[in-house]
Queue: 3 jobs
Job 1
Amino acid sequence: MTAPVIEARGVGLTFQTGDGPVHALKDVDLAIAPGEFVSFIGPSGCGKTTFLRSIAALERPTAGDLRVNGMDPDAARRARAYGYVFQAPGLYPWRTIAGNISLPLEIMGFSRADRKERIARVLELVELSGFGAKFPWQLSGGMQQRASIARALAFDADILLMDEPFGALDEIVRDRLNEALLTLWAKTGKTIGFVTHSIPEAVYLSTRIVVMSPRPGRISRVIDSTLPRHRPLEIRDTPEFIALAHEVREGLRDGHAHD
């Protein structure tokens, strides 16, 4: 058994607010193995983004133990263990696409030649070769989000954390990017943690689906995917896919029932 890349034991997170404490996460236990694609799904406010942000050291759990590559999240952040993709592309409008991707590499002190090589490689991975000199406003929403994925891939972390990266896009673009993401995952072998509101998206992308219950966010069910690694979009019409989607829906319903 290889050591998990991400491991949570009894993780809880309580926010202190003016109206009293808000229990965002409670007793979360999860181990993610290298190369897995794990989606987190649940109703709004169930703590799925909070958990992802905790892995990325953007929030600090108030209970339990969380390890990323065997380190605490702060140490993992300093070791550049992961790339993070937010809901909005967050590209600087005054920088070209190549300039946006270059930014974290500049901060990390990569040489100009190394930056150039990495930018070319990640643009190719996200199918944006030839767009490096464009500015964000010259790209569609889907292309901007691909550029933001390229930026998260540029320093070659083993882990990619994605917080509803396609949530704002229309369905056709989203389908296209889902396919592109699976291709990217197959090519790079990265471990991916992915937050989504969409049952079909979770089922299509993941090796495991973590269903979370409403606040306080707990894991109500973990569903192993039985789908093959190679997944054309048409797989969504198969009985196997429909059965998995049904199981996720049941899990979401159960989570609500325990409120």
Job 2
Amino acid sequence: MTTIQNELVLSADDPAALRGRYDRDGVVQVNSVLSPAEIDEIRDAFMQQVASDREALGAIQEVADDDILSRYPRFMQPHRRPDLPVGKISRRLMTDPRILDIVTALVGPAYGAQSMFYFKPPSARGQAMHQDNYFLRAHPETCIAAWIAVDRCDAANGGLSVVPGSHAMEVVCPETADAEQSFTTGLVRPPEGMTAVQTDMQPGDVLFFHGSAVHGSLPNTTTDRFRRSLIFHYVPQDSREVSRFYMPLIAHDGTEVSIDEATGGGPCGDGWEGAMH
């Protein structure tokens, strides 16, 4: 794997270049979107939340009790908890123009659909390669992720890997992932001839990528470094449907919006009902 530090990093000051690179590769990195002070606020709030009540937002059922991730579960939809500091931060940043303007440049006007926070402490497993729109099921277009680095994220601590160009493939039904490497069960293999590249991100950098782009991460092999990240998913405003878990959607002014619920079997057949991401 190579780093994308020089390949896909562009400035937010050139929306046309951003859109061109996104259309070509399905992924683009914009550095220093958030300030060090903002990153400190995010990190402190989420660490205080996981120390005081990790079940308020955590997906505890995903791993065994002796797994390090049971102590540091990924937090799901914190923006829906405005009563908590992590909820206020997530709700505010989901509609922050510095992020939303880039999303708009890439896919047009969009609604916020999901917020997540990953702690990924030392020794934690990674997440097998997958496609986000397998879960969101936005239609007729797809979702887009804004993946915010809260720590230095690289190969050693399980920084994100992504396959440029894979956004052109259809969303597919996953295979079974290696449980020794991934805490999630699904695996999507990159298209033949395409290679995953390893991101290298500083706190405050943001990676934007297409909902069909294949991406994932390896385990955190360090002994003393977390790989924390705050992630938002958006869907274009002209989307006709999205999976029920992601509604209500959030407009740029913070108001809540609902569209039709995605129906049908999804990529795994008629009986498939989707899953939380």
Job 3
Amino acid sequence: MSDHGTQSRRQLLARTGALGVSIAFAGNLTELFAGTAAAQTMGHTGYGPLVPDPNGLLDLPEGFRYRVLSREGDQLRSGEGKVPSNHDGMTALPGRRGRVHLVRNHENRNTAKLPVPTVEGLTYDPQGKGGCTALTLDVHGEVLAERVAIAGTAVNCAGGPTPWGTWLTCEETEDRAGTNGYTKDHGFIFEVDPADPHRSGAVPLTAMGRFQHEAVAVDPRTGIVYETEDAFQKPFGLFYRFLPTHPHGGAGSLRAGGRLQAMRVPGVPDLSSIQEPGTTFDRVDWVDVPDPLAAETPIRHQDFGRKGITHAQKLEGCYWGGRSVYFVSSYARSAEGSAADHYGQIWRYDPTHRRLTLVIVFGPDTDIQLPGESPDNICLAPSGGLMVCEDGSGAQHVYGVTRHGEVYAMARNAQALTSAATAAGGTPEAPEWGEFAGVTFSPDGRTMYVNCYTPGTTFAVQGPWRR
């Protein structure tokens, strides 16, 4: 952060339950939640300190409770096999008669101990161990069904919901056929229909690009799809938009193809160089990607002309809010080639005015100099606040950010704390890495769903949410 990110413009969360955590937060969130009617009722603070969970799973503020919906290694209710490991991105979509469909990614590589079971008609590459599972919940939040929604994909990290009620799951890999045992090229987006997975099948949306996908967001007015690329080594990833041939065609329409473009901010080759929240660029260019399939050269290595293209390290979360798309750079490290250091940026792109604004900067001038405070998956809460999944080592949290800029702890993975305490007691086992992922809310806003990556666990959290 630049030296003019002063204390008067930051709010620090000094205590989160039993642990002290300090996070530098900079910026004004008024514009972040513009267009969200419920934002006007968001309070100035969080929900109080976290209360240690006697069951050692999930610490929450007083008055909140959780339920475990699904856990890796359990049997899928469909009988197709066991619940796969590595729970990652997720969405909650409305179903018929008040039901809710949860679609959950499994970021499995070819070494995963619990792969997504292969199912006829839903498997892309039999050697791929990633994919999605779908849970159907009744009006009381009870699990009615749990089944494979797509299989045979690889490293399914995040994705995004569509306006027509499907989920776009993203492969965060560029492995080709013949690499790591795969029989097909990987690095694609796939559409998943939670109500009827066989209707969407396992068809790669090749025109949307082959690269290390992270997340997507769809503009409901135009049908344009925005995509982030999670690359932590130079050249870093790009921020893309996909202009579909049939922008409002509904489920399956993205198979018709379209144009893939990458964002260029004139004079800014690396977004990490921008350190001042509120910095705005009134002109953003979109440049056609020379080879979306990356047949010879990965897209971020391709030649975009003498004016170049804009890169950013670790582009991750992406969502649509109001009339803008928001996307996250999880961190930037100059030691790894970035132009500057930070522990998280959130950018806002207004497509109507082609305007890009840096809305939030986390760190690095925090009391705890750790990249573990980096934001990853994000979503808007019904109250108008923002929920952010932390991605790093040690104790892991879901943090809330109010529209007034206060950062507070919403949940803590007690499993990570238990493992760390055990390791500190002299056992040879290292602390377990248990980041949160896939935070999302039910359509009625009464339940927050979130995954623990490992051990793969899906939680439903209810309590006195501010409406």
